[in-house]
Design brief:
Layout lengths: L7 H40 L5 E5 L2 E8 L3 E6 L6 H7 L1 H6 L2 E6 L17 H14 L5 E6 L1 H12 L4 E7 L9 H8 L8 H4 L1 H12 L6 H11 L2 H21 L10 E6 L11 H7 L4 E5 L6 H4 L1 H11 L1
Helix pairs in contact: 2-9, 4-5
């Protein structure tokens, strides 16, 4: 028995049915994945609850911790991390012996919100932190920024020079580079872009090795922030900040000479993420009177590998 040929309208109807089924299955899978991710994010926040207090600043709910007394010291964390970065490094405890230490989860990280209507450039975040400090009654302080936080610290010092007594810039990115694309490729396997949702532990381990090498990876740091860093909201914030790094460096590189307050520049000699020679050492040459601290055998996470050295840099300008 011969089967008749399927007519064109019938084939079209059959194909449409296949596409409809595929679309429905795909939508169901995406919906299920979204629910799983949302539940994982909720579980992460329950397992890592806020440890500090909150301020409402210009519509942003900012989470912060405060410890110690005497001279105020603001610590600004880098991309993809949160307050626990400074907590697990031991820097908060060290500094609290001689300072009133204030650390914020920057917008979109940890337990702080990040309204979508704002482009959260270093300048925008500097304004936000200045307003937050005012709410805490802090008119002038020493400011330390690590990595992306160094850009926020510089913006704060340029916008409000009388509010920044001195600057400590750790492992920062200050000048646009031709090979920064290589760094971005590394970050694509990290919480910065979000591929870790696909690669899981392998990607996280690669990132930890990259930022800590040649020093030993801090397991306390990794355990403290991993689940929070892999939330979609924090991945989005990290990706947005990655795209702003080069444009910000282009815009700011001609202004570093305007920094009139004491400046300490701290960098790991073996930083694989942001090269010391093309960034921190060059910045030292462009800021007259700045102090340069190059720590041998240490990578990007200087405050974990050499917290006492970072503390000495703080005291030198404080």
């Amino acid at each position: 028995m011969k089967l008749g040929r399927i007519s064109a309208p019938a084939r079209s109807s059959l194909n449409a049915g296949k596409y409809a089924v595929a679309t429905a299955v795909g939508g169901a899978l995406l919906g299920a994945m979204a629910l799983v991710v949302r539940r994982q994010a909720s579980n992460a926040e329950q397992r890592h609850p806020a440890v500090g207090k909150f301020l409402n600043v210009d519509g942003v709910r900012l989470h912060y911790v405060e410890r110690g007394t005497a001279e105020p010291l603001l610590l600004i964390h880098g991309n993809g991390t949160q307050i626990e970065d400074f907590e697990t490094s031991g820097l908060i405890d060290l500094a609290a012996d001689t300072h009133r230490v204030v650390v914020f989860d920057r917008p979109g990280f940890g337990h702080s919100s990040r309204p979508r209507g704002t482009v959260w450039t270093p300048s925008a975040q500097a304004h936000l932190l200045h307003e937050a400090l005012a709410q805490l009654g802090i008119e002038r302080c020493v400011v330390l920024g690590h990595s992306w936080g160094a850009a926020v610290a510089v913006a704060l010092a340029l916008q409000h020079p009388t509010s920044v007594k001195s600057l400590v810039l750790v492992s920062g990115y200050y000048y646009p580079t031709d090979r920064f694309d290589a760094v971005l490729q590394v970050l694509q396997a990290s919480p910065v872009i979000g591929d870790l949702l696909r690669y899981g532990r392998l990607g996280w381990s690669s990132l930890m090795s990259m930022i800590f090498s040649p020093a030993t990876i801090s397991r306390s740091f990794s355990d403290a922030i991993k689940e929070m860093a892999l939330r979609p909201s924090q991945l989005h914030s990290s990706a947005a900040e990655s795209t702003l790094m080069i444009p910000n460096a282009i815009a700011m590189q001609s202004r570093y000479g305007e920094l009139m307050m004491p400046v300490s520049i701290v960098v790991g000699a073996d930083d694989r993420l942001i090269k010391a020679k093309s960034q921190s050492m060059r910045l030292h040459e462009n800021i007259p009177g700045s102090a340069l601290h190059v720590i041998p055998g240490i990578g990007h996470m200087v405050h974990h590998g050499a917290p006492a050295e970072v503390m000495r840099a703080i005291e030198a300008v404080a």
